[in-house]
Amino acid sequence: MSRPSETPYANWDIDTEGEWAQEHEMKGLPGATVFYQHEFIDEDTANRWYTQLTELETWYRPALSMYGKPYVQSRSIASYVTSPSLTARYSGHSVKMNYPYPPLLEEIQRTVSARLGVGFDHVMLNWYQDGSVHIGKHRDTKENQVIASLSLGAKRTFIMHPHISKGEKKVAGAEVKKWVLGNGSLLVMQGDTQENWKHEIPKEPKIKEGRISLTFRQLVHQKR
Questions:
Q1: pLDDT reported for residue 10
Q2: What residues does each domain of the chain span?
Q3: Which residue intervals define the domain Fe2OG dioxygenase in the entry (predicted)?
Q4: Quick check: 221 pLDDT over 60?
Q5: DSSP letter for each residue of 68-95
Q6: Cα separation of 184 and 153, whole Å?
Q7: SS3 212
Q8: pLDDT of amino acid 9
Q9: Rounded-to-integer distance, Cα 144 and Cα 11, Å
């Protein structure tokens, strides 16, 4: 098993003036910094990675609680960190962290980091077995400087909604925006995105194929 360093890059955010950022920045999202590359990796590589990742032995479905009622999450997840001391929680659930990275995940993270020029120390895998599996509107932890999500498998709709905090006004010009995340695509969010926007993957019952998302984050940055 490989043991990638916590971050091979000194930067914790993307150079928005760089060539990649300029080419792939999403427009029409005021108060957010979002990038999207539809063909980050080729389809053959995406399909191969998807198949290999389904064979991981670390997949599980978390037992969560909503309004005091327990339920089992519909998505299977698997989580890896570059240091055994790193931890994460969501929806009151302590995520089962695996260490070290298997070689395939190290390869994928290295590919993403090299393109963006930033380091990551955590990856969360979400397996949507078909279109009935979804994730509702939410915001990720704001302390993450950069969140990068690689999509493998079935195409799924991604929707961003303006977030309005109590007593505040919606960011001027902010409207719901949706697009399709392709097989092998890369979505990146940074800056004030989580402060001003929510996002979701809605149910799409007609989709019978599976999708795996790999979301790379910076847990070390959160603790600084």
A1: 56
A2: 19-222
A3: 119-220
A4: no
A5: TEEEE-SSEEEEEESSTT---EETTEE-
A6: 8
A7: strand
A8: 55
A9: 13
